[in-house]
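Quick entry between incubations.
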Amino acid sequence: MVHAAKLGHPTVTRPEGSRSHARVLLAATVMMMLGQAPAWAADTTLVVAAATFPDSLQTGISTFTSTSLLMQTYDPLVARTNKGDYVPALAESWEPAGDSAWRFHLRRGVKFHDGSGFTAEDVKFTLDRIINPQTAYGFAGRISQVSGVRIIDPYTVEVDTKGTFPILPKAVADMPMESKRRYETEGANVARRHPVGTGPFVYGKWIAGDRYELTANKSYWGGAPKVDRLLIRQVPEAATRVASLLSGEAQIVEELPIDVLGQVEASKVATVASIPTTVGLVLTFDPRKPPFDNPKVREALDLAVDKDLILKEILKSKGEVLDGQLLTRATFGHDASLKSRPYDPKRAKTLLQEAKFDFKTPITITTQSGKYVSDVDICNAVAGMFGEIGLNASVNVVEGGVFLKQWNAREMGPLYMVGWYSLGDADFATVWYTEAGKRTTWVNPEYEKLFAEARATNDTALRAKDYGRMMQILHDETPSIFLFGLPSLYGVSSKVSGFEAASDKILRLKDVAVK
Amino acid sequence: MLNYIARRLIYIPLSLLLVLCAAFVVLRATGNPIDIFLDPNHTPEQADVLTARLHLDQPILVQFVIYLRDVLRGDFGDSLQFGGPAMPAVLDRLGATLELLAAALGVALVLGIFGGIACAVWRDRTPDFLISTIAIAAQSMPSFWLGILLIQIFAVDLRWLPTSGRGDGWHLILPAATLAAFVLPNFVLITRTSMLEVMGEPFVVTGKAKGLSAAKLLFTHVFPNALNPILSFLGIQVGRLVAGSIVTETIFSWPGIGRLLIGSIFQRDVPIVLAGVVVVSLFIILANLIVDLLLSINDPRIRLG
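Done. Structure below.
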């Protein structure tokens, strides 16, 4: 059957006259009489403009942009929702099997796009491949405690862990389950270029740096997608992405720049969809070096930042001010009793004077540009607020590779900007303030102890208590100025229904319909 | 002539070697692929595997020698991001860039030369004033600004053309126009100057005195003599165009080599960057060689041998 709508050729829908309606009706009637379903009547294409693309569709690139594309054709064992909850996907249920293993019960009757059945063999193959260091799988570190996978029966697997590993079901949520058969019959090179998964969409065509074309998997176990075709285009320039939304070429636009929110809302052809992410944006001190080794100095600088004002003026009230702690509100382990320190420049100045702080001390804020929403603008605003109480602050924008090099050497200067994502569980974010994270210059023995305890128990109440105390320590010690939970922003055409902004920036398009 | 071409060809590997060396050292000195490419959560074993694969435990000069040895065997290494060999990944994107460059250069050359000739013929009169003003205005417009302006007018407001992406010929118009605007003004101005210079030569006065028609004088006597500075300039502009194409490709999501290179530099995907640098350098070197040959054909006084 020939499909009328050609992928990749943006069409602008114009109101049709009654005559053409009549023609369409006539054609439909004729075709139905001939026993054919009119292709064009059902053939809907959803076009998404993505800001960044991974350079290939191979699994194991640990970026959300890569995961976002992979999850169109694949499913994980446990899926995350747009809001950040964890729900059954290829595993229908799971439970701890003793102290150092998890048992997953797999969904039955699930088929890969090539028609072969999904079984425990595929789970074992995928997880074994991930933990093999030769694979260089980006997310391998998330499940580094996994020691092996045992097949109990075709629909049950047990994953052995070194010690108790409470977050395993959440940790596998970004790991697509691949087909063992495909790797064995076609080889890794083909499997990497042409994904065959169990997901809601089927691979059509991939052009690096340009476009990813897919078709609906009509027999998807979770229900068929509401569109027939999906086209994800890479449009790196933000202004061009907005233009493609307003001109009707794209229906969903990722990473909407914050300064055009008003323009999009006013256009009447599109709206803004937003949700707080789990990324906590912070400014981290180097407490090894005076005067920043003094917690009072760090507290004073925290007091000098008017976070509410920055949220309102720069982030246009999207996202949230962090509650004086690393974790965003929706994250497991967030301590609701803590609040952000209220803006108080007078007290900040008094504290600094009490600490005999030399106001000429250069305070360089190191940041990357374009890594996080409005990163440089926020740093400039903070430097300005420091300047208002007489501090000598400046912003140093560095390129990503240089940033990482300095970071790895743990020489970031007095303050640097970073965003830590938690994906809904405190473990993923809190690790960065422990020695195990290999990033922190602030070390606290009690914090280390609590982290280790919370990572090694399946007792949810105990974990929540530990993380709460850890948040308290971070708040009191102020190794970082805790700024914002960053927003995830999308532009959505009014022709689209069923789309939700995702807190983890993974596109979930199965229930999206195009009018 | 053949002798000359052979000598020029000998210099190519030398130029490439220098370019490669510079790119290699800068990339390695400013960032370690282990930190950048691997997830911050990477396991020590993963770091060891990548270290061994890229010989990162060796001094940088040894790394470079190993790399050169592999290149001489025709192996540019495997891309870190793609997983596959680097050179085919670069060549895959070359077509899109060549298409864009050819369109932009064609437009810039034709319009630039005719615009320049018009300026020279009607020197200090309305056409000269208009064209020169537009050229100077266009030259001072940054590419990204012009590109976004064109998208706003032709794609969002008028809806005549697509905003971005590569597809049929319609997709090529805006990016080619933006890139052409980057070099076109220079062609106008150089053609104008060059033509005016020749128009003042005694042989032109002789031609006029002989009673040659204005058009014949212009196109068979003045223009060929004015062509060489324009051609030399063309050689320089090819390099500028390639640099300019990076911005244009980004604005218009054109899947070309410029965007691939920028992305790979940020990722410190050294194999891709070096393969790309070789391709781009070769392109510029060959373009300049062709320009030199054209120069000697147009003006036999230029002795290449």
